[in-house]
Design goal:
This protein is of the alpha/beta class and 315 residues long. Helix content is 23%, strand content 27%. The chain folds into two domains: 188 residues, FAD/NAD(P)-binding domain, CATH 3.50.50; 119 residues, FAD/NAD(P)-binding domain, CATH 3.50.50. The chain has six helices and 19 strands. Strands 1, 2, 5, 6, 7, 8 and 19 form a seven-stranded mixed β-sheet that branches. A five-stranded parallel β-sheet has the order 10-17-11-12-13, covered by helices on one side. A three-stranded antiparallel β-sheet has the order 14-15-16, with no helix packed on it. Bound molecules: NADPH dihydro-nicotinamide-adenine-dinucleotide phosphate. NADPH dihydro-nicotinamide-adenine-dinucleotide phosphate binds next to helix 4.
Amino acid sequence: MENNAQEQVNLFIIGSGPAGYTAAIYAARADLSPVLYTGMQAGGQLTQTTEIENFPGFPQGIDGNMLMSQMEEQSRRFGTDIRFGAVTKVDFAHEKGGLHTITIDGEKEIKAQSVIIATGASARWLEIPTEEKYKGYGVSACATCDGFFFRGQVVCVVGAGDSALEEASYLAKLCKKVYLIVRRDQMRASKAMQSRVLSTENIEIIWNSQITEIYGAEAVEGVKVYDKVKNTTTDIPLQGIFVAIGHHPNTELFAGQIDLSPEGYIITKNGTSHTNVEGVFAAGDVQDNRYRQAIAAAGSGCKAAMDAEKYLVEL
Ligand code: NDP
């Protein structure tokens, strides 16, 4: 491969969610001249959310896209070099002061003295045989993106965490009926979300159940749902299936380069953003299997920028 780009940067930030942008704001204000690559989904997971009601500073709530575009603007204002593109390979140096090599879109190579990984997490799917066939034809992982297409129709949401209940509430405003398919006899979501869903008339909860089959000619026309307590399978005609069963960390790129937990999350040391590689830091959902909140991700982005600054000063 021809390598005609010899760019070298102080600090390279991978990812453009709350962690990446917060790291960029702090790093840019500390004169570290950060270069941030957005990844394919600029703005990250919050761009697929509706109203965010628990991000401090917005008492009336704020739209996810709006919050992310404001973070982007704020990081640009202090001089962050924001670029659209995906990191396709990393080659981390394993001694202090060594340069890390990052490949963009399979072509351009950039050398970096320090790196902040803020690649976040991605939606999980049910992984039943017919799911793939109907993606984009009734099967979705984002009610905010696709709910509009199901106005006045019948849909289901799978999952019982805050995401699933948030999606169910959102869809209940658009759709005739929303089934919430829960695999156990209880939900993981916060009590506040549970009571909101339980008091919504057009949401029906189907407990102890899982979808075993999706059917339809061109698009989804219904699902078969197995109730493991009653040992029965029910056929539910519907047009949309929203899968909201959690996420997996976006760390495929870093396998073999950095220490990962058995679940694939980047391991950070003692509440800091330090990884096992000198000069490489991690922030946000990519290293957080527990809190996974936008505000927690933003906080860890701040820590990563401060850790990177200290590292660069000490070099
Ligand atoms: P969670 O991991 O919290 O929940 C995943 C849900 O999906 C669980 O109920 C789980 O069931 C269920 N599930 C997993 N696999 C399957 C499967 N194969 N079939 C059926 N069901 C399945 O993920 P979320 O995305 O909901 O939330 C992630 C984090 O983000 C949480 O900390 C949450 O609090 C937070 N969040 C906060 C929001 C807010 O505050 N506004 C909004 C959205 C998310 P089981 O319980 O049986 O394991």
